[in-house]
Amino acid sequence: LEKMTDLVAVWEVALSDGVHKIEFEHGTTSGKRVVYVDGKEEIRREWMFKLVGKETFTVGATKTKAAINIDAVSGFAYEYTLEINGKSLKQYMENRLKTTNTWILNLGGTDYRIVLEKDTMDVWCNGQKMETAGEFVEDGTETHFTVADHGCCIKAVSSGKRKEGIIHTLIVDNREIPEAVE
C-alpha cells in the first residue's frame, strides 16, 4: 500500500460548513506532492524537480482559498505551512473567532454544528446554509430557523460596552446553548 507513505502534514480547519481535514504528502526523493481534503485527492504532482514552492486549492462548500507553502529549513528538512484566505492558519482562526459564533448541540441523538457568520448573518448547520427569518425585537434582533423540527433562534443584543459589541445567543426549544470553542 503506497498511499500516505510520504505524509508530512495534517491540519484540521474549522469553516462555516464544517471541520475539514487537509493532508499533505511530500516525497522528497521523488518530488511527489499530493493534497487531500477530507480524504479526497485534490492535487497530485509526480516528479517535481523543485522541492520547495506552493500548492493552492479550495476547501469546503464555500470554496475557501487555501495554500500549502513548502520551504527548505536546512539541508533536506522542510517546513510546511497552511494558509487560509491568504492568512496563516493561526491568524485565520484568530480572526474567525471574532467574525463567527459556533454552537455544538445534540437533538434527538444527532449532533449539530451551528455557525453564525456575524458579518453576513448567514447561519450554517452541518455544512448547509440555513433558510432564516430575521426580525427586530425590543432589545436587538432575532434570527429564526429550524433544525430537525426544533425551533431555533439566535438573539443579537448589544452588550452596552463598545469593546464587547453585540452578544449572540443561540436558543433552541427555549433553552440557551453554550458557545463551543473550536
From TrEMBL:
Coiled coil: none annotated. It is found in: Cytoplasm. One of its GO terms (biological process) is apoptotic process. The keyword Cytoplasm applies. Pfam families: FAIM1 (PF06905). It comes from the Eukaryota. Gene3D superfamilies: 2.40.128.180. GO terms for cellular component: cytoplasm. Its main location: cytoplasm. Keywords: Apoptosis, Cytoplasm. The keyword Iron does not apply. Belongs to the FAIM1 family. Plays a role as an inducible effector molecule that mediates Fas resistance produced by surface Ig engagement in B cells. This is Fas apoptotic inhibitory molecule 1. It comes from Grantiella picta. The lineage of its organism: Eukaryota, Metazoa, Chordata, Craniata, Vertebrata. The gene is Faim.
